[in-house]
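Exercise 7b. Backbone tokens:
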């Protein structure tokens, strides 16, 4: 049988995706059911336990395929990046309606009515996708319930012009292993989220990103804004020819520092030497601007 990346392959010892029949051995194959995340965000873990390691977070509106549910956990594959794991069943709802808008604010509070003076019930993070079903004054009611400020949303086809500028907005956000919200994220989560806001899909983990994204460049022509610098287990975004923007455990936050300083520390204390510099087809704009969110 072929060898597959377990992170991206919906196959367990007792169950596998129907599409893998003949490729992996399993006593049972299922087609899976289309669902969608209806919670503001949800953890995706390696095992169906609340204290299991966090692999990533899933934002409201993300599509998933559910293969199994047991004792409050669903075994799923994410539609956005193909990651496989366990998430709380209560975070899932029907696949329809499809989202039409994206949250462009770092976070937007959800209210029980169209009034900012009401006590908020939750918040939606940058990148969450939603379906407005009613507009009242400056607020929209979501298909999942609750109201958000319409100025914090843009239509799905509208994207940031510069993914680096998106990442800059997250400077100071605490570092969280597996995190992908504006309350906490890790290095590859920062890259994936920032690129997604600019309309560019990216895998979840650092090794996947190094393999899949951009074209490798050497240091001789000089680094540019938007270049991705990889180590074995870490990634950062060049803010300009000299400064690196990255979520990291040294600062325990998204931070900007001189690449030379970061490279020395990382080489000596953690991930070793730089393994690659990748340049994307759509580099960030040098003026640091982003598209103005619409309604």
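Sequence design result:
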């Amino acid at each position: 049988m072929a060898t597959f990346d377990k992170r991206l392959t919906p196959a367990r010892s007792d169950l596998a995706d129907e599409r893998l029949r003949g490729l992996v051995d399993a006593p049972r194959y299922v087609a899976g059911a289309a669902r969608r995340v209806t919670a503001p965000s949800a953890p995706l873990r390696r095992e169906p336990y609340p204290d299991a390691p966090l692999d990533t977070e899933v934002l409201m509106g993300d599509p998933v395929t559910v293969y199994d549910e047991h004792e409050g956990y669903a075994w799923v594959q994410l539609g956005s990046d193909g990651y496989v794991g366990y998430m709380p069943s209560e975070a899932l709802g029907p696949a329809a309606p499809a989202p039409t808008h994206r949250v462009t604010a770092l976070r937007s509070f959800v209210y029980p009515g169209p009034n900012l003076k009401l006590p908020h019930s939750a918040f939606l993070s940058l990148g969450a996708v939603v379906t407005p079903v009613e507009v009242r004054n400056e607020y929209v009611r979501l298909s999942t319930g609750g109201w958000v400020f319409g100025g914090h949303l843009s239509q799905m086809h509208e994207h940031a012009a510069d993914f680096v500028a998106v990442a800059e907005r997250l400077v100071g956000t605490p570092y969280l292993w597996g995190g992908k919200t504006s309350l906490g994220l890790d290095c590859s989560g920062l890259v994936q989220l920032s690129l997604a806001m600019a309309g560019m899909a990216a895998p979840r983990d650092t090794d996947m990103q190094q393999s899949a994204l951009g074209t490798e460049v050497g240091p001789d022509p000089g680094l540019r804004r938007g270049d991705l610098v990889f180590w074995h287990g870490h990634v950062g975004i060049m803010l300009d020819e000299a400064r690196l923007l990255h979520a990291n455990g040294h600062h325990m936050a998204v931070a900007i520092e001189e690449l030379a300083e970061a490279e020395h520390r990382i080489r000596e204390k953690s991930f070793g030497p730089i393994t690659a510099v990748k340049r994307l087809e759509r580099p960030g704009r040098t003026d640091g601007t982003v598209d103005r969110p619409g309604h």
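Instructor comment: Residues 188 and 206 are 6 Å apart (CA to CA). The radius of gyration is 20 Å.
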